Amino acid sequence: MSKKRALIRQQIRKARNSLSKFEQKIAAESLKVNFTQHLKQQKTIKNAHIGIYFSNDAELDTSLLIKDLWTKNHTLYLPVIHPFNGTTLYFQRYEENSPMRANRYGILEPKLNCSQICPLAELDYLLMPLVAFDDNGNRLGMGGGFYDKTLARYEKEHWQKPQLIGLAHQCQHVPSLPVESWDVPLNYIITPQKIYHW
After folding, report:
1. Distance of CA 160 to the CA centre of its chain
2. Is there a binding annotation on residue 77?
3. Residue 139 assigned to a binding site
């Protein structure tokens, strides 16, 4: 199964990286519109606590969405790799003047400040990157397992939030993914063209 997952990662990353700068720009604008529409449908007017991430490796660009959510008075949190176990994530408040540093993957994250960390269960929405997704809401990540290990500490049937939302280009959709026991399915996937819900 791991070989099949690795092959899907390779194929989808290649497709994602083949998108032009113009296609990425249009996709980022459409993401902003679609997520705003999603918040309206959820009757979320302002001051939601939203976990989000900086895009990497030709992922759907979140920069326009981040700026738009700030203007609408939502509070944003970025993932920070746990400093001790190195395999799970904290979600720390992110503002325009937040001190930042590059993590071991070269991705910027806020400098750890325990007073700015939001417990996972207090986030209203958790927006997650992914390499591929399927018709059942399954998500295939980069292989590090950070989100799955972070979410594994919570019994999904007992929590009300956060709502788990994957962000992806439409080219990252596949009919079916090989699923492992630790994979956590998502509530929604938002692409520039469509909002999927399970």
Report:
1. 18
2. no
3. yes
